[in-house]
Amino acid sequence: MVANKHKVYLLYTSVLLLLFLFSFSCRQPSKAPQSQILLNEGWHIQSAAELSEQGDSISSSGFDVQNWYPATLPSTVLAALIQNDVYRDPFFGKNLENIPTEQFKNPWWYRKEFVLEDKSAFSNARLLFEGINYSANIWLNGKKIASADTIMGAFRMFEIDITDTVVHGTNTLAVEVFPPKPGDFTIGFVDWNPRPPDENMGIWREVKLRMSGPVSVNNPFVQSKVNLNSLDEARLTVSTVLINHSGEKVSGLLQGEIEGIYFSQSFSLESNEKRKFTFQPRDHETLVLQNPRLWWPNNLGEPHLYSLKLTATVSDAVSDVHISRFGIREVSDYINEEGHRGYKINGKKVLIRGGGWVDDLFLIEDPKKIEAQIKYAKHMNLNAIRLEGFWGNSQTLYDLADQNGILIMAGWSCHWEWEHYLGKPVDKFGGIKTPEEMELMSRSLRDQVVWLRNHPSIFVWVLGSDMLPRPELENKYNTYLRDVDPTRPTLSACKYMVSDISGPTAVKMNGPYDYVTPNYWYMDKKHGGAYGFNTETGPGPQPPPLESIKKMIPEDHLWPIDDYWDFHCARNEFNTLDRYVHALNNRYGKPETVDEFASLAQAANYEAIRAMFEAFGVNKPNSTGIIQWMYNSAWPAMFWQLFDYYLMPSGAFYGTKIGSQPLNIIYNYGDKDIYIVNDTLRVYEDLTADVCVLNTDAKVLFSKDIRVNIAENRSAKILEMPQIGGLSSVYFIDLKLKNSQGKILGRNFYWLSTREDILDEKGTTWFVTPNKAFADFTGLKDLPEAKINVKHHFTDLGKEQEIQVTLENPSDSIAFFIELNVCSAESGHSVLPIYWTDNYVSLMPGETREIRARFSKEDLKGDTPAFRFKGWNVKSD
Question: How many CB atoms are located within 10 Å of the residue 199 CB?
């Protein structure tokens, strides 16, 4: 019998090694190794209410699924129905309200057949379910292999041994999914958008078939300890869990490789034993790396990654291989002199600049769209996203964050902390109360951490959002985290609170969430202003350009703003644009058409968000972090987004990009002086700052050149602005920062008013500070016409195209707020995503600028690109 087993292992080895050598050479991040089969294609779903058969019949070969709906996993029930055109264009108008919810209150079946050509090629097989919402009975080949009393919890992960149930040839898997009930700790969107009609029930993450010899390699983990003084050495600790799936004692060799670095140790496991094995740098000198390629967040360095390969060998035959990616970096937190929490990467303080991430409302994961959204973050000069909830149908989001240097705050949502979202009573610690609930959620946290801990992008585990976890629960969380990930800080809540277990959170969640004028971020010293770490805040609504508005609002509701617009706002206090429109009307003048509204909105969005990001830069080191609420949108919306659901950048996108320049020159709306902010680890010397103040007729009222130096990761005031007479009601400040060769390293252009925005601080609520008076920008409508010259050409770059646009302003007038656009020549639709070096730009008299953008040829959909532009007061030859 032993000899026969060895033959099986040798056969398995020959196939496995060839597949893994190919897999390793490709170095695909978080790619399932070839001992895994991703069971994503060929599923069918149907409501249990439409069936009389039970699991034993449904999971038998030959069962008729002719009237079922085809599905590709991961997929919620509603996502599959939409893919089958049962519900069309659910995001247009109020169509979402017309999807009946009663059908989702009963179980739905998921069924798939898969083929194993050679069962003898492995000795053990397991099914891995990475996410089921909310519970399930699971059947394989007519046999029930797991039941809903154990397969329960949206964030639990389950591995089921099917060695004795799986067969050579065709296998039939059937999963009866039960929806979440009120009080269940399910996936939630809080007040950001409508609730999905099916409450996201279904198999929402990947299903995998794992195969191995008698010993499997599980959950590898690489911990990094960096020499923070020199950054020239890193000590790695590598661990993994080996499981002996056989009924016999097994001995073998565990071997590791990290890009030409080798280490190994022998192992011996009793029958069905599971044990953790660790490689320490004190025992394996090769794990002490000299001059390591460190992982850095965006604008601080390159996000270098390494590959780890672990191989378990039994009796000279490969039993299992696991390949994963990791980054070498060390993360820590600190409390500054003012008592605010901040974070360090590789010993360097990082001003967190980010936004709140959300997945698609139906949890439809489009890898290309995920990639564009992460690249947008990098393009906007951001370095972080916050996940209120462990988002992602797969590890795609986290892989892309690793590759692009985007930090991730990962943790639980406030969805379970408020009764009207959770669906049952809560107390000051939220809704996780009973010992059983605490055990479920602590195990859920453990599953998520083990799944994600090799991602260097994740810098903190968030244990609560609006509330602290119950002390018993926080202790349980910490017990698990000490075991599975001692390398990262934890944050017990995203609001300032004091935990009996971990002390002060030292971060804040004081709003605002609705529109505030740009000076708020500098003037406010008690609430959401630019001090400390504000974990969620922002200037509220960010309506997209007109093209996107037309995609969600029916033509007969486009103007004036009505309840269809409200439907595409957020919920509760944020279910209208009233406060935003009130400010817009007072500051820019009341728009008469939807076209005018959309145009004015982009200017308002730009200045509102730019000031927020700039203020947190100006005020460091007192300020330590800012998370814009939100970064993206789960559906087409008017609220809380830097770009919209269709990937259309707005004024807020480019205001963020300019406001977060790694080397920036800034007008402070508070003290009205000029600052430089350096977010990099580089020292800049012999710079020249050009400051120019102009009236609407382009008359220069003040001009000054200043020689400046700036240390790494610093903010400095470089000019106290004098009182300037003769200003028009609207005036401009043009700022440029140049190196010794005259190259522009940073630039900014502000439109200001002699009538100031005045905050009503006594009227502050938890979500907004209103105004007593508003600035007056109505004079922008009367700017003198600027005739500009515009040239462009497209360059073929293979899979991409690039457009180069040259803007020249030979006139004596300022050319204000020019929007550049690439569209499909035939349809006129914008080509998205697109990466402009700048947009919504203004030109001084005599100024010439070259602006570029890249986009994918695929997004032209076979058409040719065309260029168009528009500005507030511009005309072209």
Answer: 25
> Mind listing the pLDDT tens digit for each residue in 711-766?
999 999 999 999 999 999 999 999 999 999 999 999 999 999 999 999 999 999 99
The structure's pTM equals: 0.95
**259 a catalytic residue:** no
Give the integer Cα–Cα distance in Å for 874 and 877.
10
Q: Which of 157, 650, 651 shows the shortest CA–CA distance to 445?
A: 157
Q: Which two tokens stand for residue 516?
A: 């505030």
* Catalytic (active site) residue 800: no
Q: pLDDT tens digit string along 628-679?
A: 999 999 999 999 999 999 999 999 999 999 999 999 999 999 999 999 999 9
Whether 14 has a pLDDT exceeding 50, the answer reads no
pLDDT tens, position by position, 530-575 = 999 999 999 999 999 999 999 999 999 999 999 999 999 999 999 9
Q: Mean per-residue pLDDT for 72-89?
A: 98
Integer Cα distance of 429 and 469 in angstroms: 6
Q: Which of 179, 172, 128 is nearest to 152 (CA)?
A: 179
Q: Is 19 exposed, middle or buried (0-12, 13-18, 19+ CB in 10 A)?
A: middle
Task: Determine contact, residues 646/551, Cβ cutoff 8 Å.
Answer: yes
C-alpha triplet 28, 29, 34: angle, nearest 5°: 60
C-alpha to C-alpha distance for 705 and 719, rounded to whole angstroms = 10
Are 91 and 548 in contact by the 8 Å Cβ rule? The answer is no
d(CA 760, CA 113) in angstroms, rounded, equals 64
User: Which tokens in the block code for residue 721?
Assistant: 């602005």
Q: Which residues have C-beta within 8 Å of that of residue 732, sequence separation ≥ 6? A: 693, 694, 695, 696, 749, 750, 751, 752, 814, 842
Distance CA 157, CA 126 (A): 13
CA separation for the pair 329, 455 (Å, rounded): 10
- Crossing angle (nearest 10°) for helices 594-618 and 578-588: 90
Confidence of residue 445 (pLDDT cuts 50, 70, 90): very high
What distance lies between CA 701 and its chain's CA centroid?
44
Q: Which of 536, 679, 757, 776 is catalytic?
A: 536
Q: Rg of the Cα trace of the chain? A: 29
Residue pointed to by tokens 């196939």: 15
pLDDT digits (tens, 9 = 90+) for 114-157: 999 887 788 999 999 999 999 999 999 999 999 999 999 999 99
Encode 664-693: b = buried (16+ Cβ within 10 Å), e = exposed.
bbbbbbbeeebbbbbbeeeebeebebbbbb
By CB atoms closer than 10 A (0-12, 13-18, 19+), residue 266 is exposed
CA distance 289 to 688: 41
Q: Got the DSSP string for 136-170?
A: EEEEETTEEEE-TTTSB-TT--EEEE-TTT--SEE
Beta strands (DSSP E) in 586-729 are 623-628, 663-667, 674-678, 684-695, 700-710, 714-719
User: Which of 130, 359, 365, 466 is an active site residue?
Assistant: 466
**What amino acid is encoded at 124 in this protein?**
N
Please report which helix (H) or strand (E) contains residue 772, including its range.
strand 771-773
CB–CB of 149/196 below 8 Å?
no
